[in-house]
Design brief:
Elements (H helix, E strand, L loop, with lengths): L1 E4 L3 E4 L4 E5 L11 H9 L7 E7 L7 E7 L5 E6 L16
Antiparallel strand pairs: 1-2, 3-4, 4-5, 5-6
Length: 96
């Protein structure tokens, strides 16, 4: 599998690290214990297009949102994670 980094172009998967589901939202600090248990331990296993967070650690070090079809592994879209709430505290734009 290869990912097309918006900053560096098409690269091999070994340059990237999968960092999780890009659709999960952290509960409020005062959320119930059950909401925190669900956030930490429960994940959907969708069949079809799914948004994921990836980190380009061996390249530009950008956080990416990758939309991937989990049935075929086809990459449908790759974008910088600046619009993804979960990743905003770790964002690094494309290096010059």
């Amino acid at each position: 599998m290869r990912l097309k980094c918006p900053c560096c172009g098409e690269r091999g998967l070994e340059e990237f690290t999968y960092r999780g589901d890009a659709t999960v939202r952290r509960p409020a600090p005062d959320a119930s214990h059950q909401n925190w248990v669900d956030y930490v331990y429960l994940r959907d296993n969708p069949a079809g297009p799914h948004r994921e967070l990836w980190y380009h650690g061996a390249g530009c070090r950008a956080w990416l949102v990758v939309t991937r079809d989990t049935r075929t592994h086809e990459i449908l879209e790759v974008s910088i994670a600046s619009d993804t709430t979960r990743a905003t505290s770790h964002i690094q734009e494309c290096a010059p």
